[in-house]
């Protein structure tokens, strides 16, 4: 619970909530545009959406969109590079928080990595659709950035898999990781036919089985 000073800082002299600053309002509008783009790009494909459509979805004119993004490609870049950075940094954090890397601890780390990625797949099916369909629409430099981040994420998983299974080669571990990602990233297709709870449970179980951790 906030202090009196903290509460006062959040309200004006009338006791009503303070109006957002210009910077806060701009940041909120930017996030709104990203949310609209995520929905529209997933539904219609990047090439099926105009800048006008993004503005209309956010309740602003097309020229006003340029105050936040230079183009609809820049919006796509923010979505796909951003989610790749989120996954890579999240994987690094989970591994860094792990104890000494013996096989038992590595298996527990894999369970945490699975929970992390399934959580992403269940909450961001639209981004998975966009990644699958529209990655090629990114500028070349951004595509390279996404690929680099993805390779780092896969490599971190593969290192943990090898620690859990010392007899496995790096190649075997990497193939297993790619197979697991394929299953977990199938959520946009499976979620339409099954409940979210069932999908989440089954994805975690299937991923653990593929990586041979109990």
TrEMBL record:
Keywords recorded for this protein, A-Z: DNA-binding
Q: Which residues bind DNA?
A: 50-69
Q: Where is this region: Disordered?
A: 1-24
Q: Which PROSITE patterns match?
A: HTH_TETR_2
- The HTH tetR-type domain covers 27-87
Where in the sequence does UniProt note compositional bias of the Polar residues kind?
A: 1-14
In which domain of life is the source organism classified? Bacteria
> Keyword Transcription regulation: yes or no?
no
Listed InterPro entries: Homeodomain-like_sf (IPR009057), HTH-type_TetR-like_transc_reg (IPR050109), HTH_TetR (IPR001647), KstR2_TetR_C (IPR041490), Tet_transcr_reg_TetR-rel_C_sf (IPR036271)
Is Glycoprotein one of the keywords UniProt gives this record? no
Entry's SUPFAM superfamilies?
Homeodomain-like, Tetracyclin repressor-like, C-terminal domain
Which Pfam families does this UniProt record tie to the protein?
TetR_C_24, TetR_N
Q: What PANTHER family is this protein classified in?
A: HTH-TYPE TRANSCRIPTIONAL REGULATOR RUTR, TRANSCRIPTIONAL REPRESSOR MCE3R
Its recorded name reads TetR/AcrR family transcriptional regulator
Recorded source organism is Brevibacterium spongiae
Q: What is the lineage of its organism?
A: Bacteria, Bacillati, Actinomycetota, Actinomycetes, Micrococcales
């Amino acid at each position: 619970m906030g202090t009196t000073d903290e509460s006062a800082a959040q309200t004006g002299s009338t006791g009503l909530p303070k109006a957002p600053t210009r910077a806060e309002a701009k940041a909120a509008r930017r996030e709104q545009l990203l949310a609209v783009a995520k929905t529209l790009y997933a539904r219609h494909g990047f090439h099926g959406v105009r800048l006008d459509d993004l503005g209309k979805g956010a309740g602003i004119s097309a020229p006003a969109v340029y105050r936040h993004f230079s183009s609809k490609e820049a919006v796509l870049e923010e979505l796909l590079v951003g989610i790749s950075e989120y996954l890579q940094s999240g994987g690094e954090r989970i591994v860094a928080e792990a104890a000494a890397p013996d096989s038992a601890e590595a298996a527990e780390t894999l369970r945490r990595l699975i929970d992390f990625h399934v959580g992403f797949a269940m909450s961001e099916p639209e981004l998975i659709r966009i990644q699958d369909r529209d990655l090629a629409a990114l500028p070349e430099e951004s595509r390279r950035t996404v690929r680099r981040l993805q390779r780092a994420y896969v490599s971190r998983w593969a290192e943990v898999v090898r620690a859990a299974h010392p007899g496995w080669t790096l190649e075997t571990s990497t193939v297993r990781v790619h197979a697991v990602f394929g299953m977990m990233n199938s959520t946009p297709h499976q979620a339409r036919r099954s409940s979210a709870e069932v999908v989440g449970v089954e994805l975690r179980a299937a991923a653990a089985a593929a990586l041979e951790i109990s």
